[in-house]
Amino acid sequence: MRIWRRPARTVRLRFTVLYGAMFLLSAVGLLVITNLVGLGGTRVSRSAPPGTPPVEPTTLAAATERIAWLQTQLSDTHAAQSRQFLIGSALALAVMAVVSLVLGRLIAGRVLRPLRMITAATRRISADNLHERLAAQGPADEVKDLADTIDDLLERLENSFAAQRRFVANASHELRTPLATMRASLDVALAKPEPVPAQTAALADRLRTELDQVDRLLEGFLMLARAQHGALTDRTTLSLHQLATAALHARTADIATNNLTVRSPAAADTPGTVHDSAWTQGNRTLITRMIDNVIDNAITHNHEGGSILLATTTDGATARLVVETGGRVLDQRQVDRLAQPFQRLGADRTHSGDGSGLGLSIVAAVAAAHGGTLDLRARPEGGLRVVISLPAAAVPAEVAA
Q1: Strand pairing report for 384-391 and 318-325
Q2: Do 22 and 70 belong to one domain?
Q3: Which of 45, 117, 210, 366 could potentially form a cystine with 227 if both were Cys, beta carbons 3.0 to 4.6 Å apart?
Q4: CA 116 to CA 143: how far, in whole Å?
Q5: pTM
Q6: In the prediction, which pLDDT does 232 show?
Q7: Is residue 219 located within the same domain as residue 301?
C-alpha cells in the first residue's frame, strides 16, 4: 500500500499557482468588460433606427423597398456594433495588460524577496566574517536549499582559511627553530680560540646574511597571513602622522647614509588638510608594520641624493598617507604588480639584495584588512607615489582636550 505524500512546496509550484491565478483573474476581467460592451451594443441595436418612415407599406414594391432599407440599416447597425465591440475589447485588453504587468511585478517581487535577502547577506560576508551564516528560515524549497548550500560553502571556506593560517603560522615558527640553531652553531664555530681561516669566516658571514634574509622572509609570511586571514583585534585610534614620523626618526642613519632629503608638500600639492594627524582605527602592530614597510621601501628603492615626500591628510571620511620617492621613470604596468607577493621591479632598483618581495604586498593586505586601499602610481618625473587610504576616525578626546 502506497502512502500518499503531500507535494513539496517548491518555488516553481508557487510561481505556477500565483501566475495561473493572476492570468485567470485577468481573463475573467476581460470577459466581463467585453460582455458589458457587447450588451451595450445590443441595446443600441434594438432601438429604432432614426429616420424610420411612420407609414406602413401598402404595396409589394413598397414592401420590397422597405425590406431592403431595413436590411441596409441592420447591416450598418451590425457594423457599428462590431466596431464598438472591437474598440471595447482593445481597450479592455490594454487595461488588463497593464494590470497584469503591475500584479506580476508585485507578486514576483514578493516571491523573490528571499533571494534578494540571501544575495544581500552573501555580499556582506567577506574573509573577515566567514563565521556568519545566512540561516534562512521558511519551507524546505529551492530557496532554503540554496541558502543551506551557501552556508555549507562558507563553512568550508572558513575551515580552509583557518587551516591555511595555521599552516603558515606553524611552518614559520617551526622553521625559526633550526634557523636559530644554525645561527648559534656559526657563532660558536667562529668563537673558538683557534684561528679561523679567512675563507671560513667569509663563508660564515655569507651564511649569517642568508639566515637573516630567511628570517625576515618568514616574518613577512607571518605578517601577511595575519593581515589577510587573521582577526583584527585590539583596535585602537592611531595617528598616521605620528607613526610615519616615528618611522622616519628610527631610520635617520639610513636616510643620512643614502643622502636623502625628507620634505613635506605645500597645501596646493596634496588635497585635504596637510600635516594633520590623520586619525584612523586599527591594530597598532599591523598599521605600524604597514607604515614601516612604506618608509623602508622609500629609503631602499631610491637614488643617491634623492628625496622622500611625506604627507598625511584627512579628506572627509578618509585618512591618507602619501609617500613619494625619487628615482628613474617606471612602467605603470609593472608598478601595478608590486602589491602582489614576490614582485619586484628589478635588482637595479635596489641597493642590496635583502628585499623579500613581500613589503608592498603586506601593505596592501593590511590596508584591505582595515577597509582601506593601496594606490601605487609611477611619477612622470621618476620614482613612485604611494597612497594609503584608510577610514578616518574621530580625534581622541584626550588629544582634543
Answers
A1: antiparallel
A2: yes
A3: 366
A4: 11
A5: 0.57
A6: 64
A7: no
More confident residue, 225 or 240: 240
- Mean confidence (pLDDT) of the chain: 77
Mean pLDDT of all residues in 20-34 = 71
Does 251 lie in the same domain as 204? no
Identify the three-state secondary structure at position 137: coil
- Which residues, including other chains, have CB under 8 Å from residue 259's CB and lie 6 or more apart? 304, 305
Q: Where is pLDDT greater, at 68 or 168?
A: 68
Q: What spatial distance separates the first Cα and last Cα of the chain, rounded to whole Å? A: 84
- Average pLDDT score over residue span 176-205: 82
pLDDT at 8: 59
Domain limits at 189?
172-229
Residue 268 belongs to some domain of the structure: yes
- What the block records as the C-alpha cell of 170 is 606553524
Is the same domain home to 358 and 215?
no
Cα-Cα-Cα-Cα torsion 29, 31, 33, 34, nearest 10 degrees, comes to 160
Whether 98 is in a domain gets the answer yes
Question: How remote is the C-alpha of 66 from its chain's centroid?
Answer: 84
Number of domains in the chain: 3
